[in-house]
Amino acid sequence: MRKNMLDMFMENTKNYLHLNNNQLLKIKDILMRGEAIYILDEQPPIDIMKKFPEFMGEFGLLLINNIWFLTVSNKKTCYIPIELDNFISTGVIQFFAHSHPDDGTTANLFPSFSDLLSIDAIDHKFYIISAYGITEVDITKAKDLNFLDERFENYILDNHISYEEYMKNQFKIYMNFMEFIGCKLNIIPYENTKQISEILSSKQLLQHEFWNKTIGTTSYPGKKL
Fold first, then answer.
1. Residue 220 pLDDT more than 60?
2. pLDDT tens digits, 138-154
3. 178: phi then psi, degrees, rounded to nearest 5
4. How far apart are CA 59 and CA 42, in angstroms?
5. Which residues contact 81 (CB under 8 A, 6 or more apart)?
6. Per DSSP, what are the bridge partners of residue 215?
7. Which stretches of 70-187 are DSSP H helices?
8. Which CB contacts under 8 angstroms, 24+ apart, belong to 104-111?
9. Which helix (H) or strand (E) holds 196?
10. Per-residue pLDDT for 213 more than 80?
11. Rounded-to-integer distance, Cα 125 and Cα 87, Å
12. What is the pLDDT of residue 104?
């Protein structure tokens, strides 16, 4: 019998270590093990997720075929093993979030330009876990996410934004630029536990036909954008 893409994925991930929520409480110990990926036995509690930005490394949280995965890095970059990389960028996973270490600035609320280019999901939303809350990034209506550095510079120039004004109003200017390129940002504080819980639960209802396709007859669907 020919395997489908889900069979191949499960085969590639069968040796990942498992963590339960009690083990997740020891985040510092997990981080000290270095770059790794784990299968979580259940959906992680919000109280644990909100601790991720306290550390200089980055955590990634994924949902694929209703299985939760946690990636761990002790660097300021999200560790994504090669067997997951294509899935994260091609819009076939149910959920993806990663943490931004807290450096005392509100910049950690926002996705980087590389985040916008390299992350996609079934519903075209991904999430940033920061010290301020969880930012939902909706790229459904984004038409072009290439050359964002240059486009942001042009946006500053075209709107005659001075350096002083930029330094004073970075938050507002960045939010306006996100809207300008078709991205919608929704910042959800941790106090809104009900809303965050509903988002996490709703992702378990998402599925993609990609996983049922037979190996050798399918290709990655690519971004919708």
1. no
2. 999 987 888 999 999 99
3. -60, -45
4. 16
5. 37, 71
6. none
7. 82-89, 113-118, 148-158, 163-168, 170-180
8. 106/132, 106/170, 106/171, 107/170, 107/174, 108/53, 108/132, 109/133, 109/135, 109/171, 109/185, 109/187, 110/135, 110/174, 110/178, 110/185, 111/135, 111/137, 111/183
9. helix 193-203
10. no
11. 14
12. 82
Does residue 222 register a pLDDT over 50? no
Task: Tell me what pLDDT residue 216 has.
Answer: 57
One-letter amino acid for residue 146 of the chain: N
Please give the single-letter amino acid code of residue 35. Answer: E
Amino acid at 109: L
| H helix count then E strand count, the chain | 10, 8
pLDDT band at 105 (very low <50, low <70, confident <90, very high): confident
Q: What is the pLDDT of residues 20-69, one digit of tens each?
A: 989 888 888 888 888 899 999 999 999 999 999 998 889 999 999 899 99
Cβ(188)–Cβ(133) under 8 Å?
A: yes
Q: Give the Cα separation of 201 and 19 in Å (integer).
A: 19
Closest CA to 13 of 120, 127, 116, 93: 93
End-to-end CA distance of the chain: 35
Q: Which residues pair with 38 in a beta bridge?
A: 17, 70
Give the other-Cβ count within 10 Å of 20's Cβ.
10
**How many whole angstroms separate alpha carbon 174 and alpha carbon 180?**
10
Does the predicted model carry a pTM greater than 0.90?
Answer: no
Q: Is the distance from CB of 41 to CB of 21 less than 8 angstroms? A: yes
